[in-house]
Design brief:
This protein is α/β, with parallel strands linked by helices and 381 residues long. It folds into 3 domains: 90 residues; 118 residues, Rossmann fold; 141 residues, NAD(P)-binding Rossmann-like Domain (Rossmann fold), CATH 3.40.50.720. The protein is 50% helix and 14% strand. It has 15 helices and 12 strands. The strands form 2 sheets. A 6-stranded parallel sheet has the order 3-2-1-4-5-6, sandwiched between helices. A 6-stranded parallel sheet has the order 9-8-7-10-11-12, with helices on both faces. Strand 4, helix 8 and strand 5 form a beta-alpha-beta unit. Helix 5 packs across helix 15. It is elongated and about 110 Å long.
């Protein structure tokens, strides 16, 4: 990384101090020519010493006096400004990470930051693959920035950000965002600059799938929730009776809808974010718009004695405390209920499994499937 850091430093100097150095050079060159003309008997070495004011000329007149006065000031301003600026840049890793993106080639570009993105990034780091992250929320990628990885903080739909990420020389692009607008705009712009690199897009809607996969985009569109359902459905179709689903993403909606269609089953979905789901509602699908932090929040709506399965499928790390609490309480008071908890960190699996709960990571499952879909030269293959 030392050589790359030197290149970054040079780029910063050129970018921020190009004009001052040009002015300094032109002023010095003017003085050099002036002393060369008025001191024809002196050699080049002596003229150079005069031009940098190490020596003085007795026949230069007012201009020589002016030059001797101004040149040291210019030197101090430009050089001192350069040193201070460079020191300040070292305390602004966001700029350094952004410039680092511009120096990588034949790399993997990850747009958006979610659990799947983390799987891709960590795989690239572990296997020493070149990558670049584009994310508009600096807090999400702060650790990668501070550790000196190529991160571009900004709107991925802006052409300048894509160009700065060397998108025209990218080996592949992973668009990991729930925002359909970003997915479509980025795919369009990426294909304009890079006609050949594969674009892998996470998207839920089927009609968007079709649009992204047709000419000229030729992207590979996939749904994490659809892939994850292949694993979860094995559990849901193995039991009868009522099921409780706690969560608010597409996987929770798919699961609740699928259970409601099964014979002798009903689904109760606790979703405090959405008013409804993307699938047709029916009499056996009940949506409760509440965030159940405590067992009492659930029991005021349903009788848990009638349930056979509980799926706690929150996606945020900040909700894991509630997930552990509910798992422990349900396991203690309703030992016959099967509990399934969605986790991201492998270290947390043991904590949840203490309460006889099965754990599941949709991002890990999707990542393993994605590894089978990418090209042989992919960074995650």
């Amino acid at each position: 990384m030392s050589l790359i850091n030197k290149i970054i430093d040079l780029e910063l100097k050129i970018k921020h101090y190009k004009l001052p150095f040009i002015i300094l050079f032109l002023f010095w060159f003017l003085g050099f020519l002036f002393f060369l003309i008025i001191e024809p008997t002196k050699n080049i070495g002596e003229i150079f010493l005069l031009s940098i004011t190490v020596r003085t000329s007795s026949i230069g007149g007012d201009f020589a006096s002016f030059y001797v006065l101004v040149f040291p000031i210019l030197i101090e301003v430009v050089i001192f400004g350069f040193i201070i600026g460079e020191l300040l840049e070292q305390y602004n890793p966001v700029i350094t990470s952004r410039i680092l993106c511009h120096f990588i080639h034949n790399h993997t570009v990850i747009i958006g930051y979610d659990h799947l993105s983390v799987r891709i990034i960590e795989h690239c780091i572990e296997n020493k693959r070149s990558f670049c992250i584009i994310e508009d929320n600096e807090e999400k990628v702060e650790d990668y920035i501070n550790n000196g990885f190529p991160v571009l903080v900004g709107d991925p739909t802006e052409t300048g950000n894509l160009i700065n990420a060397n998108i025209d020389d990218a080996k592949e692009v992973f668009i990991c965002t729930n925002d359909v607008r970003i997915s479509i705009i980025c795919s369009e712009k990426i294909r304009n600059y890079n006609k050949t690199c594969p674009i892998y897009v996470r998207v839920f809607e089927d009609h968007v799938h079709d649009y992204l996969e047709q000419e000229p985009l030729n992207a590979f569109a996939f749904s994490m929730s659809e892939w994850a359902m292949d694993a979860v459905i094995i559990w849901s179709r193995a039991r009868k009776g009522k099921a409780l689903i706690i969560g608010y993403d597409h996987l929770c909606h798919r699961l609740a809808y699928d259970i409601s269609l099964q014979e002798d089953r009903e689904a109760y979905l606790f979703d405090h974010v959405h008013d409804g789901i993307e699938f047709p509602e029916n009499d056996k699908l009940h949506i409760i718009s509440e965030f159940p932090r405590f067992l009492s929040d659930i029991r005021k709506h349903v009788n848990l004695n009638e349930f056979t399965q509980v799926y706690i499928f929150w996606t945020s790390r900040t909700e894991f405390d509630e997930a552990i609490y509910l798992s422990s309480k349900i396991s203690l008071r309703y030992p016959d209920i099967e509990i399934f908890v969605r986790v991201f960190d492998d270290e947390l699996k043991e904590v949840v499994e203490r309460y006889n709960a099965k754990t599941f990571s949709s991002s890990l499952y999707a990542f393993k499937l994605l590894q089978k879909k990418v090209r042989a030269n992919s960074s995650i293959a």
